[in-house]
Input
Amino acid sequence: MVQMPRSRSTTDSEGELGVGEVFANGLSMKTTEVEAKLDEGNIEEAESSLREGLSLNFEEARALLGRLEYQRGNVEGALRVFDGIDLQAAIQRLQPSLSERLHVLRKGRSRTESLNTVSQHAASLVLEAIYLKAKSLQKLGRLTEAAHECKNVLDAVERIFHHGISNVQVDSKLQETVSQAVELLPELWKQAGCYHEAMSAYRRALLSQWNLENDCCARIQKGFAVFLLYSGVEAAPPSLAVQMDGSYVPRNNLEEAVLLLMILLKKFYLGKTKWDPSVMEHLTFALSLCSQTSVLAKQLEEIMPGVFHRVDRWITLALCYSGSGQNSTSLNLLRKALHKQERPDNLMALLLAAKICSEDSVLAAEGVGYAQRAISNTQGSDHHLKGVGLRMLGLCLAKQSKASLSDSEREWLESEALKKLNEAVPFESDNFDLIFELGVQYAKHRNLNVALHYANRFIEATGGSILKGWRLLAIILSAQQRFSEAEAVTDAALYETAKWEQGPLLRLKAKLKISESLPMDAIETFRYLLALAQAQRKSFGSRPSVHQVDDDRVNEFEVWYGLATLYSNLSHWSDAEICMGKARELKPYSVESLHAEGVKLEAHGQIQEALAAYFNALLLDPGYVPCKILIGALLLKMGSKSFPVVRSLLSDALRIEPTNRMAWYYLGMVHRNDGRIADATDCFQAASILEESEPIESFGSIL
Output
């Protein structure tokens, strides 16, 4: 039998053009004569020379001859040599003897070791020939044929090694051929466009016992994960035959890809493979798709120090925590990254910090500083980022105005916010969010015609595919007292929106019905909204995730509270009490329930009890404006001694909501009763103007 051919002065790599000398069965010969005959096209004579010179049989000589042709770069010639022999028949002849020797080997290694080695060398040579035939077909573009030939290698190995390959059973060359074939097969199926076959090949590679090295297995796992993420081919779950009891079975491509990538990271942590940064990049993409950035943060925290620079790690972790709604943790990490001794001018960190601060009036002033630093650090090609910085600056200034204690400062901040947002437009003319934010800001300033222009522009730019655009348009129309048009817009949006996403639109429609003095229609809409809320609760569970966006989910508590308020306005107190009872079951302690209770008590003449309910609501939320106004209205009736308290409450309410018409109205009443007629006139005029442009929902509720 044959020993593994060896070459001098060259390697076995695929690109070598010549082989100086080969060895087999203890014999050696120069390849010069064989190559000369191959050059002349005399394949039979070349084969005869190898058989006589190295004592090889027909299949072994042909396999070695094809290998020589392949290494010389003559792919077509190699394929002609491989086509001249029945490689499968050779494998079948080798299979019984090798299997028997392996069985005997397990009982007595020393007596059969040499025979087993000879058989393995012969099998290795023939299997390598099939593998090289697949490679030749691949280079010639015959990909499906190449995949079938490569599959033949693995089928033959499984027939020879019934229980899989173990370390003690095979020599290095045979193992190398098997590993190469396992890794090549899914790639061939992908190149041939046979994606389901590629998926099966990947699973076969990972679930069968091929005795692969860690690096080879890692490459296959990574390739499969990338295929699952980006191929667009939906994978069926693994077959029941390979599923173990109690084991986790991925339900879709995304879950399976995440599982593979996390296994790869685990191997790196254990020192079994080298660090591959692309694995973390793919995992970042996968976990971001399913809004599991908190899981990604945990993976980043487990990576040993030194793999990432600490500042890069802080910024990436900040992105993860921000994505999972943990803004406080994210901002703390960004503050560390932006320290003067770290990277104080990092644009990504500055912009993310500004974005987080723009969502909190307490942090807005800090966000202004971050945004200004980001703008000053943009250079040349960073025009887009300058636009982002201006936009963040505008949002931070708008949020900062809510915390301002003086009217003049608040007006200046609001004006500056609008100015910065407009300055961002030339840099980000295609940014839909910027268009939307401009519409909201103009609407807050009661510049409704301009706000309507931006709302329509946003809907046109997005093709009406984003719900908040329709909501903004309807609210602006309601502020213009165009209720029928607002309802038509809402109905059109409902028609284009999936059932699970209709909650905000239905709530808007109910409020429109109330504004049109159609309370029974409003009640019917609330009932439908309530049914939708309860269906969502049963489908998605009563406890949504931390970062679950509430825009397209119906808040059942708000529905019950809306119904209770409507029944209270109609003086249907028993129905109102039932609705509030349902609301309290969902949220036992809330400012809304205390507010509703106070309204009911006040209507029944229980003034002190109503005041107590309103004050309790302010203890829960000191910034709850409706209760400040109601307390002020009640105290106003108690005489001049309470005027300073009333004035303070109403002024604070206007600081929080400068466009609240009822606060302006009662403040005017205080001034009138106090003899300040000019101030009272200004307040009444402001209340009248605001009443003419009062929306059915606050413009700020959309952001």
